[in-house]
Write a structure and sequence with these properties.
This protein is an alpha/beta fold. It has a single domain, classed as Alpha-Beta Barrel (TIM Barrel), CATH 3.20.20.20. It has 11 helices and 8 strands.
Length: 274
């Protein structure tokens, strides 16, 4: 069985970087750049060379308003990339909501299922992950990417996100996932507006009190635009690094990023300070 403890030196101390690898034509920042499997594999190897401990491979955009992709298409996008990168120096994560995609990705060499729905979209994904003995990340989201923006309503974002993630962690454990294989993600930008995102980031220590490692992904997201005025996602590095550093100082274990090398450097400094 894979577990976070088995890779503690690489995963938990110090905090580490998960490189985003979207094999999609329509992701918000890099859509189309790595839709070709060879291009995606080359990009993955570059991120490994730059210091990524994890590569998170996705075949379905989950940007606000995105439509669902058929499982067959998603599989065609991600499996060749996973097979091409397996055993090449990084641990592989599959970014999917679907049990069939997770199962095939794990068979191809992925070790972690990164599920933006936390098992709500396709509950079978929990049993698939459990049977494989793989790591599982439950992210907080309301609704689907197509509907989530309309559900960004909170009285107490930190308390509500914490409660929801505790419920998803319990569901994962009940499905047979080892608690040591569980990771949580507060879902920055998913059914959250800027005040909610800021509150949740400030409240990371409360989320960490649930007892599971945290993945945080805010790289190039809309909140950076809203805070800095930088419209082009590819030009939001400075704001992304500031947010990453704050997340590390508040207890994040894995930082999900587009720009690996500068994120590795910023994480090293922030980790030393915490």
């Amino acid at each position: 069985m894979h577990s976070l403890e088995a890779g503690a030196d690489q995963v938990l101390a110090p905090p580490c970087i998960m490189g985003i690898l979207n094999a999609t034509p329509d992701s918000f920042s890099d859509g189309g750049s790595y839709a070709d499997a060879d291009a995606a594999i080359a990009r993955g190897l570059q991120m490994v060379a730059e210091g990524a401990t994890w590569l998170d491979i996705g075949g379905e955009s989950t940007r606000p308003g995105a439509d669902q992709v058929a499982s067959e298409e998603e599989l065609a996008r991600v499996v060749p990339v996973i097979e091409g990168l397996a055993g090449r120096g990084a641990r592989l994560s599959i970014d999917t909501r679907k049990a069939t995609v997770a199962q095939a990705a794990l068979a191809a060499g992925a070790e972690l299922v990164n599920d933006v729905s936390g098992g709500l979209f396709d509950p079978r994904i929990l049993t698939v992950t459990a049977k494989a003995g793989a790591l599982y990340c439950a992210m907080h989201m309301r609704g689907t990417p197509a509907t989530m923006t309309g559900q960004a309503n909170y009285e107490d974002p930190v308390a509500e996100v914490t409660l929801a993630l505790a419920e998803r962690a319990n569901a994962a454990i009940q499905a047979g996932i080892d608690p040591e294989c569980l990771i949580l993600d507060p879902g920055i930008g998913f059914a959250k507006r800027l005040p909610h995102n800021l509150a949740v980031l400030r409240g990371l220590p409360t989320l960490a009190s649930l007892g599971f490692p945290l993945i945080v992904g805010l790289s190039r997201k809309k909140m950076i635009l809203e805070l800095t005025g930088v419209d082009d996602p590819k030009q939001r590095l400075a704001g992304s690094l500031a947010g990453l550093s704050a997340a590390v100082l508040r207890g994040a274990h894995i930082l999900r990023v587009h720009d690996v090398k500068p994120s590795v450097e910023a994480t090293a400094v922030a980790a030393a300070l915490r």
